[in-house]
Task: structure prediction
Amino acid sequence: MSLSVTEKSYLYNSLSSSPSVRPDGRLDYQFRAIEITTDFLTSSNGSSRIIASDGSECIVSIKSKVIDHTVLQPDDSLVEVTLDISGQRDDSPMVESISSLLREVYSKTIDKKSLTLTTKYSFKLYIDVLVISTYSNPISLISMAIFSALNSTYLPKLVSSFDDIEVEELPTFHDYDMIKFDVNPPLIFLVIIVGNNVFIDPALNESEIANNSLIITWNDNKISPPIRSLALNDTYCEGFKPQLLQRSMELVEKCANGITAMLQDDK
Amino acid sequence: MNVQDRRRLLGPANAKPLTFNTLTTSNESDELKKTVLKNEALEVALHTGFVSNSNGSSLVEVKDVANSHHETSLITSVYGPRAIRGSFTSQASLNIQLKNGSLEKYSSSQLKEVGNFLTNIFKSVINLPRYAKSGIDIFIYLIYDKEIQSNEKSDSTNSITSILPHCITGITLALVDAGIEIIDMAAGGIYKGNVFAFIKSGEEIIGFWKDEGNREDIMNSIDNCKKQYDEYKNMMLTYLVDKENCKAN
Amino acid sequence: MSDVISITKKSGSFQKFNWSDDIERSLNKSIYHKNDEMDIDSDEDEDEKDIDTLTSGATTSTNNSTFNNQQIVTPGELVTDDPMWMRGHGTYYLSNMTYSSVAGAVSKVNRLLSVLPLKARYSPETGDHIVGRITEVGNRRWKVDIGAKQHAVLMLGSVNLPGGILRRKSENDELQMRSFLKEGDLLNAEVQTLFQDGSASLHTRSLKYGKLRDGIFLRVPSSLIVRSKNHTHNLPGNVTVVLGVNGYIWLRKTSQMDLTNDSSSTNLNSSTASSTQGPTGSINTNSISITRLEEESSWRIYSDENDKNITNNLRKTISRYTNVIRALSMGEIGITKERIVTGYEASMAFPNIGSLIELNNMQTICEDVINAEKMRGNAI
Result:
């Protein structure tokens, strides 16, 4: 969707003024409301469906498979992420960039130990992400969906012995009991820079006039790599002052714990 | 040579093998290829305007022991601004693609991501509104890329990060060679896995990429990257001025 | 609830319905705005008695009384087996039986039986005041997205051309169409005619139509906007809203022109009420409008410049109105000037405009609007 020149200049002036006014009146660190449904896919180990107030929607399914981790290459990961965004080709720059970033984030942050079953076998997690509809960059929404899905993931309980180096046996599992997958997944935030101001979770019209934006990963209660700058539009792209990078990170630090707590909270 | 091969359709029996004239290397281009800097830590060679079917091209060869620990050589070619099909656009659409050279080192999705990142950077460098209804395509060909084994522990595992500054240098030079309007000379630096791209004498960041390290490094590495930005920018400027002088003589 | 984000959580299969809650709410929702249209219909054409509604025998819902004897049907449902009815939109006919092809309310006007869908794309009608966005600049015409099934057409001949009072279009104008209106531009216009295929042809040959400036855009389902005489309203707080019949809404700073439009209409009313004002007043307003015509039809009507001094407070007010309209749309309450103003007043209970995006607060506003109407006695 393209906005008119007058709309863009109104939005730009509102967001870059001091104090700033967002088009929907949000505070600079405030997110749009979301709705999350977890555990709705009975055939997967964990699942979530997330709907943002602008109608963006994303489904995540997590499945596991037992593999022999001794034959893995050092680069091979125990987590595989696939991404599908409806209406976008799989080789479009947006899909490729986001899936490459997701792979980078989740293969590094999910602890291999938490997936290890025995000395020989491990679980391999398949995270399948389907973005049903999206209006602005969906990266933040996807990370929240994966977060909720991983937090509602239950893996089969191992009943055979942990040490199977000497005895050649395949791991066997309990018929009913599942163990909650204990993990503290990362979150990815999108911060836009407009003039001298920074805002979290931009709506579509805000993205259209952003001078620049940053993808910031939050893992283990702190900002961690990967961090990227990203241009969300073609017309308002500009450089930004180094202080704004600092301010963006402070903004994420300000709200990240609140988001994590809200997402983990089982109510 | 004239052995009969029944499996193929051959020419007449008295056909002679095809021979080419020996290539006469043009002295001109050799002169223009400049080793602009050479010291123990950093060695850079720049060259522009040698891909004749493109509108602008550049070769960047860098051996960087101090920061990126990489020996890299890449060719950038710029095609455009050229007419695009489809509906009206009020400004040029930019597209940057990376290609592996002889060694298939990086996965295609990694290259796409880097290409996309570079596109994002150059959206704020190229004066796109000057070129309505057109497209600018930039291709980067990674000829050679090798990690330099250093004594210190190498802090780069994902080496695609370390070629980013060189890609930026290459694109900037190729854009200048193509005569496409840019707002400022863009260049970047790398320090502890943080890549910063700057314009306007380092006052404005146009791109930031970080794949490893921690949060504390970020602000500290800005100054270091700025130093590299100045270095690369000066190299490009000296090279371009020298080239103009060469032409004038 | 944290002020960073509001999250609604559910668990388990989402196909499961909570009948008592969800269905009832959605049914209630649909009633609020459907009745509005009914009201308007009855206002417009006097033959109210002809609007006949079927007695709802089939529906077994508990709150039948709230249906106002309106029948809600679903696709494929038998509406009537009486062959006397003419079949209108939203119905089909199989061996003398009339079935519904959409989900909505049955409407019967004289012998015409049609089903008005609860939610559907906007279908343009001549005279509609709409807001649209240019999608394409073509040969002597613009294509305009108005949220209907086809793009509308705005002919070069149906816009006010810059440079003096009404004049004929020239070849020069054809060449610089993009300098009047280009892709992405928003405008308000009136539906002039409908083509055979149901697509609309627009015109902006009035000073109240044209390029939109000084504000923000939002869209709501078109079923929530009630067709009325006036679609441009000046709201308290120096804000003007253009409620396009197609559900596209523009909120802007009240301009000088909005004020004169408003005052001239009130003047008219007051002059009929009190004839003591004398003729001088009316001459005065006339002369203003003539100079304005010349002024406004210059290049300025196509300017891309916003008003230079839109204060921060005004921007906040516009954001607040945006959120109020979104809340009304969430509650599926028909959007009228009165309800926006009531909602705006109710929203003052929340000093932080950003908190209005939360579901609970939206519901509070909707309830306040409905209660206020009940108090005033024009409840629905």
In short: Chain C touches chain B through five residues (CB under 8 Å).
